[in-house]
């Protein structure tokens, strides 16, 4: 009798377990592609980046050309402000007029926009209020960062060495060749560390930090161009392309003609 009751209890517990399992799995319906598409929320596609690397490079070149052209137009000299003298500066309102006269700006507002682009790119800065990144009308003094870099570089050259001497050393000692950066080959390129080593080896500079300051001048002038389009020279494995000598001569001649034309006007 006891054995029969045990068998019945076992059957009852087995039945209850099977019932529970069926109930659990009955809650899950098979997922199809259509049901998944209907139930899951649609994730919006991320918009493509507005600027490509080529566009960034083109914009950098445009800013560099604007800075170079403006530098040949304005009178970069010593100016006084509130009984204090500031060397190597130009007056903001004069720059606005020069941009309009040269055709690089259609109106004063357009010229102010171009000046703000130079401020944002750190090509120029406000001498009176260095932290001010918005162009100010009126008698406000500005300085080209390139001029600051030149002054710092000349202070770090060894005695009797000029920037022209440095350029000659770089052209004669550096051995540019085609190098690979990622998936792209870059012809006529050198490493930043190679330029620094050449200047230190030929005793053109006091130390490696001085060499970086000097090489920055050649980045500003376009002699060196980083393949990643960064405006700062780096002592390391960064690739830089060297400007061809004939191109340098042509740009210098164009700059000289622009300067003479500006003086005549």
From TrEMBL:
Compositionally skewed regions (Basic and acidic residues) per UniProt: 52-62
Database matches in Pfam families: DEP
GO biological process: intracellular signal transduction
Name of the molecule in the record: DEP domain-containing protein
Domain of life: Eukaryota
Residue numbers spanned by region Disordered: 34-62
Ranges where the DEP domain occurs: 70-146, 170-244
């Amino acid at each position: 009798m006891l054995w029969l009751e045990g068998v019945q209890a076992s059957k009852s517990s087995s039945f209850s377990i099977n019932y529970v399992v069926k109930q659990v799995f009955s809650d899950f319906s098979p997922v199809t592609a259509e049901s998944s598409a209907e139930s899951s929320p649609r994730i919006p596609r991320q918009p493509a980046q507005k600027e490509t690397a080529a566009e960034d490079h083109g914009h950098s070149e445009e800013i560099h050309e604007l800075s170079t052209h403006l530098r040949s137009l304005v009178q970069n000299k010593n100016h006084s402000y509130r009984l204090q003298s500031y060397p190597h500066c130009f007056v903001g309102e004069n720059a606005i007029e020069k941009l309009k006269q040269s055709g690089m700006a259609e109106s004063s507002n357009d010229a102010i926009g171009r000046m703000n682009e130079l401020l944002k790119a750190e090509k120029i800065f406000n001498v009176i209020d260095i932290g001010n990144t918005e162009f100010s009308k009126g008698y406000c003094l500005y300085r080209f960062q390139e001029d600051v870099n030149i002054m710092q570089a000349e202070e770090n050259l060894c005695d009797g060495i000029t920037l022209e001497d440095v350029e000659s050393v770089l052209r004669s000692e550096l051995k540019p060749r085609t190098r690979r950066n990622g998936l792209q080959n870059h012809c006529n390129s050198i490493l930043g560390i190679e330029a620094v080593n050449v200047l230190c080896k030929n005793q053109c500079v006091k130390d490696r930090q001085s060499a970086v300051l000097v090489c920055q001048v050649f980045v500003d002038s376009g002699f060196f161009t980083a393949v990643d389009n960064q405006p700062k020279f780096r002592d390391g494995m960064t690739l830089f392309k060297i400007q061809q000598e004939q191109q340098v001569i042509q740009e210098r001649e164009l700059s000289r003609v622009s300067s003479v034309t500006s003086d005549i006007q």
